[in-house]
Amino acid sequence: MPRTPRPTIVLVGHGMVGQRFLEELASREVTERARVVVLCEEPRPAYDRVRLTSYFSGRTPEELSLVGEGFMERHGVELRLGDPAVAIDREARTVTSRAGLEIGYDVLVLATGSYPFVPPVPGSDSTGCFVYRTVEDMLAIEEYARGSRTGTVVGGGLLGLEAAGALSGLGLETHIVEFNPRLMALQVDDGGGAALRRTVEGMGLTVHTGVGGEEITAGPDGAVTAMTLSDGSAIATDLVVFSAGVRPRDELARGCGLEVGERGGITVDERCRTADAAVYAVGECARTVDGRVYGLVAPGYEMARVAAETIAGETGGSGGTEGTDGTGASFTGADTSTKLKLLGVDVASFGDALGKAEGCLDVVYSDSRAGVYKKLVVASDGTLLGGVLVGDAEAYGTLRPLTGSVPPVAPERLVLPAGAGAPVALGPSALPDDAMVCGCHNVTKGAVRAAVTDHACTTVPEVKKCTKAGTGCGSCVKVLTRLVEDELEASGVTVDKGLCGCFAHTRGELYEIVRTRRLSTFAELLDGHGREEARGGEGCEVCKPAVASIIASLAPALGASGYVLDGEQAALQDTNDHHLANIQRNGSYSVVPRVPGGEITPEKLIVIGEVARDFGLYTKITGGQRIDLFGARVDQLPAIWARLVAAGFESGHAYGKALRTVKSCVGQTWCRYGVQDSVRMAIDLELRYRGLRAPHKLKGAVSGCQRECAEARGKDFGVIATANGWNLYVGGNGGATPRHADLLAKDLSDAELVRLIDRFLMFYIRTADRLERTAAWLERIEGGLDHVRDVVVHDSLGLCAELEALMAGHVANYRDEWAETLGDPERLRRFVSFVNAPGAPDPSVRFVAEREQVRPDLTLLSGPDIPVRTLKALEGSAAR
Amino acid sequence: MTTATTDATTDASGEVRPAGTRVEVRAEGGWAAVCALSDLVPGRGVAALLPDGGQIAVFRDRAGRTYALGNRDPFTGAYVLSRGLLGSAGGRAFVASPLLKQRFDLTTGRCLDDDAVSVPVYAVRTR
Ligand code: SRM
Ligand SMILES: Cc1cc2nc3c(=O)[nH]c(=O)nc-3n(C[C@H](O)[C@H](O)[C@H](O)COP(=O)(O)OP(=O)(O)OC[C@H]3O[C@@H](n4cnc5c(N)ncnc54)[C@H](O)[C@@H]3O)c2cc1C
Ligand code: SF4
Ligand code: FES
Hints:
The complex is a heterodimer of chains A (880) and B (127). Chain A has 880 residues and is an alpha/beta fold. In chain A, 31% of the residues lie in helices and 20% in strands. Chain A has a 5-stranded parallel β-sheet with strand order 3-2-1-7-19. The radius of gyration of chain A is 31 Å and the shape is globular. Chain B has 127 residues and is an all-beta fold. Chain B contains no helices and 12 strands. Chain B has strands at 8-10, 16-18, 22-27, 30-36, 44-49, 55-60, 66-70, 85-89, 92-96, 103-105, 121-122, 124-126. In chain B, the strands form 4 sheets. Chain B has a 4-stranded antiparallel β-sheet with strand order 5-6-7-11, with no helix packed on it. A 3-stranded antiparallel β-sheet of chain B has the order 4-3-12, with no helix packed on it. Chains A and B meet through helix 17 and helix 27 of A and strand 4, strand 5 and strand 8 of B. The structure holds siroheme, flavin-adenine dinucleotide (FAD), iron/sulfur cluster and FE2/S2 (inorganic) cluster (FES). Residues 12-18, 39-42, 49-50, 52-53, 84-85, 111-114, 132-133, 159, 162, 249, 252, 283-284, 295-298, 300, 340 of chain A line the site of flavin-adenine dinucleotide.
């Protein structure tokens, strides 16, 4: 028996705040001194409820987990899944669980969260009625939606909109019923609500405001068929989700005589402690000293910290000095500013968003056509009190921290869209030190600066690790990055622009070294030009592929092998290049034969179909006008490609930072508007640049007239036909940051067009950073488009002959990588599942059927082999 | 050529080893032969099956040292670590998962990007 018995801390509720509380205990080493028992009602450990909806976009419940692998074991926390607390005896200091366990406690912490409020509508218990709170709810909704056509969400607040987005994403015709006269009534005003409504309706959802659900009608089988509204109208619906607000789960507290607020919530003091000194409440179930119940996670995290700090102090740990008042930790209220992306619309509100303060004034910018609404609330002395941003919340990061102060520029300038009037460069430098930069983790600008100046952080990831800023919802990362860079530069630190830990040079500089010194191996480059400490080492996953790409694009000039997997190059390439195929989430690969310009004969289509059928591959038409075959095991790749190559196909380089596709529209040959043969030009260009290695992937397109059906201006090089020839556009991009390509030159002949593209691509390859597409490169390089035009059109640097020669070398040396690989037994040796059992297929790569094809069997991936972390959770989820 | 089946292999270190050198991994109390040293390309890995059906990833670095880890990428559940790229940081060799690029120390199995995660490590020898 130990001389001092270990105190027992019992946590009821393992949600977001509960888990944070455990982490706060662990970081104060309380878990080493105390026995910690957690009663968790749900069948799985804490997960990211805030991102719950991402389940519908493919995130698995396991990916949402908030519990680090081995956390419970390492800290000796006893987690009882699926075993909620049912009673508390404060006299005896015991908690009883549903399974009948009676646990004595020294400290009891309630983190029971909220339950969704279901309004007392007759029929609300019919089959097909759901709430939106847990993973189990998501699974049930998903299952039921399969057999449904229409869904209705009761409640047009934050969560209601999120639920509606999910239903609509599941393919249901979706209605939103909101009792208030506008959507998101708590956060935005009438103008914001109207902008939001227009956008939501524009997405095909039906919005009913100012009405409530009166009754739910069910069919003879007990399943929902319709909902009657308070204005007498009715909606035919198969599924209903209630999202009409939440109520604190304070039933345990009531049951043992603890005080709760009038509208619910366990009453606590600024230490998050109830009137019983041994009992705490944190998170959504607590009613804090300001008389409020917070329905957001950030205030809950703050409460978890305060409670842990206080408990650490009491159990005589590192958390604070002895006694109840030894520490300064307290929770007296929190900011409820939020920025969200609901249904793809940015919505932010901060401070006194609804303008409740006496005598306050509004500054409003509204553009209903664009679905943008912005309002700032200011006091008569100019102090910014709060605001609402709908449709464009870009300014949130700078405005929220300015709340409570007089902004350095006139408020109207802050809400005008970029481009209207003089631009406002209200960078983070304008913020005061106590401005809150990261709301999720309560990190001020001062703390970020201190991370750089006092804690010697020199990169954004380091600052994130040090301060936690930016690791929550992520909405502050942009501002954070600028702050860190400003601070580094201000403190005289030259920001390290090196490629990685191995090289102090940028990619462009390395390209010059390789070119001028004629180096053809990575080893020479690393050992001769790497950072001192990296020489003789291994390199890393960042510089190896980047250098491999440089060597590949210069290969003809260096006299190096053009085959990207020869010699040492084999060790430098990412798995995709290494296997000449794209790795997929279950370790299988995809196969993409080149289909130049998107033109394909019936015979070739048949071959693709036959190959896919014979190897059981999933086929899909890609966004790049070709066909992707998914689900090949690594050991099947050679046999698949042997068939394709025999039929006249070649590698599509979908795996490489190389030319992908040159899309075309059907053009003059068939289309009544076409003025040039866009298909032929696209094929010519695709064949010319196939296999060209670059800092990032390259895409092109050719349209037969200005209608632009090939979307050429979304490509790295886009060609649009004119009556006199071709217009060349460069620097376009789709993806996350779309950019329309800029016109480089007009009315070019075929030969002029090709020559300009040759020069443009080679100049880009020479000077761009690693993974910098032409769009970002054009924005970054000094002088921008004008400079590039000077270099490649007017030859201002005298480089053009060299650039053209490099491209000519590439074209002359191009060979199909797959044909070359198949012809060489040595090169084929890498395509085995296991080195010691080459014939054995990898048993972990398995598929299940879906829509008459295959898809990866993901249960297998998250299945039986997962170590420690979620064993218990898996029992829960495997049962379904 | 690095995947040579010729008589001998030259390490990046310049050391010449007889082609017969075998790589063995400690599993279930004994040493299991996995492959010939010449099957390992410096800077890359291969997957191998253990007698019990388990999968390991065996690597060889530029200096000729060999390592073995569990082949399963704990972040995705896929058995793919053998297909990651090797690198070194602060003198320690690591492999970066080919899927989401988290790095694992080749000697300890610890994830360098998330303290809470690690993969099993196996003893390796060449003889
Ligand atoms: C298969 C395909 C989707 C589809 O089913 O249609 C696809 C699939 C992938 N895309 Fe894509 N993209 C595909 C067309 C596109 C398009 C449309 C287009 O090309 O016209 C775009 C927008 C245009 C653009 O690139 O600007 C596109 C923008 C991206 C991006 C964002 C690029 C950016 O600069 O922002 C990425 C991420 C990246 O490359 O860093 C990406 C990355 C990927 C990767 C490589 C992600 C990965 O690493 O696993 C996917 C792998 C494919 C595979 O395993 O075979 N994919 N991707 C399309 C293949 C086209 C082809 O035939 O080669
Ligand atoms: C879809 C959705 C989106 C959201 N988006 C945001 C957002 O963008 N930003 C934001 O700040 N907040 C958001 N929230 C709110 C946020 O999730 C909550 O504020 C947060 O989860 C509160 O944490 P908690 O630990 O107090 O409660 P919970 O996370 O709800 O955890 C409480 C846990 O206690 C368990 N429990 C209850 N009673 C017992 C008992 N007797 N015994 C044992 N266990 C019990 C419950 O089962 C639950 O697992 C969102 C919520 C949802 C549902
Ligand atoms: S871009 Fe012009 S030529 Fe091409 S398909 Fe469209 S309308 Fe026809
Ligand atoms: S504000 Fe959410 S991570 Fe910083």
